[in-house]
Amino acid sequence: MSTTQDYQAAEQLFRRPTSPGELVVGDKVRPQWIDGGARFWYAVSNGAGRRFVLVDPAAGTREPAFDHARLAAALAAASGQQVDPEALPFAAIELAGNAVEFAAFGEYWRCRLDSYTCERAEFTPPGNPLEVPSPDGKVAVSRRGHDLWARSLSDGREWALTTDGEPDYQYGSGPDCTANGTLLRKIGLPYLPPSVAWSPDSTKVLAHRTDERDVRQTHLVEARPADGGAPLTHTQRYAYAGDEHMPTAELVVLDVAEGTVVRAQAEPLLMPQLSPIMTRWAWWAEDGSAVYYLSRPRDLRTLTLHRLDPATGEVTTVVSETGATRVEPNQWAYEPPIVRVLADEVLWYSQRDDWGHLYRYDLRTGALLGQVTAGQWAVRQILRVDEAERVVYFTASGLVEEDPYRRTVCRVGLDGSGFARVTDDELDHVVTMSAGQECFIDSASTVDTPPVTTVRDWTGRVLVELERADISKLTATGWTAPERFRVKAADGVTDIYGVLYRPRGFDPAERYPVVDNVYPGPQVNRVAPCFDPGGMGLDAEPLAALGFAVVALDGRGTPGRSKSFHDASYGHLADAGCLADHVAALRQLAETRPWLDLDRVGAFGHSGGGFAAARAMLDFPEVYRTGVALSGSHDARYFNLGFVESYDGADNPEAWASASNVDLADRLAGKLLLVHGEMDDQVHPDHTLRLADRLIAADKDFELLIVPGAEHTYIDCLTYVRKRCWDFLVRELMGTQPPAYRPAPIVIGPELLAELFA
């Protein structure tokens, strides 16, 4: 049974991503570079407060940014407020010479570090979050109406950069389908910052004019608006798979001082999901002499690198590659392209030999000069190119035999010679680049090894150790580290990998119900190879705290391996991340772990995972007896064109129809909870309501929770929604009554939003 203590532990674990330092101290370092990138400071939260640390990598020093006790005393004396040195009343600082500045108690303060005296200081307001400032800090660009405007940061003068914007044909906005309108309204923002990129010399802005005039209009009804008035209808441009029209982006270069607009002399870019500027598919050359951008046709089978002349708008082709399925510059859809333009060459990512590797092309002629990396492993990210030494530094996965998803920092000559591992161990390495690229910050961990964060030089030598994560408060909740496992896929040949969380208070003599915490991709992985479970792992640890054994894995068709492994999902979104592999994994795990009760298996997932959770019950009713589907994309025919056509093909209506749970509703045999936000503008609530309608028509019992006003993630009612899901699983899968325990709401503020979206 699940007790009040189990629910309390589950609540603590669910809050882990939103409460830095409450359970794990020192697991994340977010550097704030100063002195032109020579030094940085960072803050470490302990749950109650923060300590501020100053680091000089060249000197190999790490020390408190100031004396916390003396500063607390000085601030208390100056403000008349009580100040705890272990819980200082500010989250960020400015180091200015021999002083530190910060905002506290509604005022701005400057404290001298030689005398530790504090005084009120002139407050410089932080930058407007809706503006994008220039590199030299003199001008900022923002959206106004349907156009882009500039503002002088010295005297406040404003002027229009464009004047011909109109509804659904405007400048600086991404597609409406990913504009997060519901979430932005909740946090008080009218829209996202403009999709623009400044030239290195701060004279020009790369932007695009977004054309959605012919894109399908969809509608959401807000039953109870914030003002308590009559229901409101919200209209959104949102293209479905197979629609004739999708959003497009017309690239423009705006001269901020001269007021000129140079338009790209090329066809508009197809932009089904995200702005090419925000995804870094369009960027400035380091010297500002050109803009480079990537494009693909609707079938996604050709990837082309273009050069745009910012003075004339002339566009030329640099490199182009065509394949049998989609050609992509990175297997992970939301990570930047693995492409780097050098002085005379291009480093180009390609999976032409079935593995993601770097190839070198002549920038002027487009001729292939040679393959730079090779082997049965994949390049993950270009970190640095030293053109003088003719060496590229990068991260790669597939070099650690125990876990092919772990990342290793490597180097190789641009001619393909001299390959070496910079981090030569069995750990996963998450890299943060220094401002001047003279060193890098390395967080090394595994799923069961807490991270150690260091600063390294490019030989791999540790310059200074920053943090060793303290997980003592995490283990005090009853948490135990997950087990990384390897089993065979349903084909009996392919290795697949996942994690297994043992239930709180684990006793191998007991039998435990199992929850498969699913997310099918194919654009991202469900399981991260590092200690931080990430957003996809938000629910696994709390479910284990409730007393469930929790399994999460990446089946065939997900990223991180070979091209053929990833392409197992191409045209097969209906397989929901290869659920057959999940079933095979569950059975293999139970062979050596008799405490896994395969007569009590449930599925739990959100978004694509909601689709997969319901699909598991419909395709494998003999295995999955219970399911929780939150915000599920249950019918590909009515989902985002960019996602569906990327992975099922641009002209494949039969596959789209197969990726519909709605048409299989009469197969339901177990207990299913459907949850959806009324104002979900990413996966519209009609997905769940279509499935509910078909279930009713098939005379099937199920539970349905529609959350008024909620967007895709339930950001302002997280704990309420999760408790409803936990209670359902405890009743229907564990077979007991849940305790009368109510988790406290999670308050979403600016600091938490910054943490969640960092």
From TrEMBL:
It comes from Solihabitans fulvus. Residues 107-451 form the Dipeptidylpeptidase IV N-terminal domain. GO terms for molecular function: serine-type peptidase activity. Residues 540-733 form the Peptidase S9 prolyl oligopeptidase catalytic domain. One of its GO terms (biological process) is proteolysis. SUPFAM superfamilies: alpha/beta-Hydrolases, DPP6 N-terminal domain-like. It comes from the Bacteria. This is Prolyl oligopeptidase family serine peptidase.
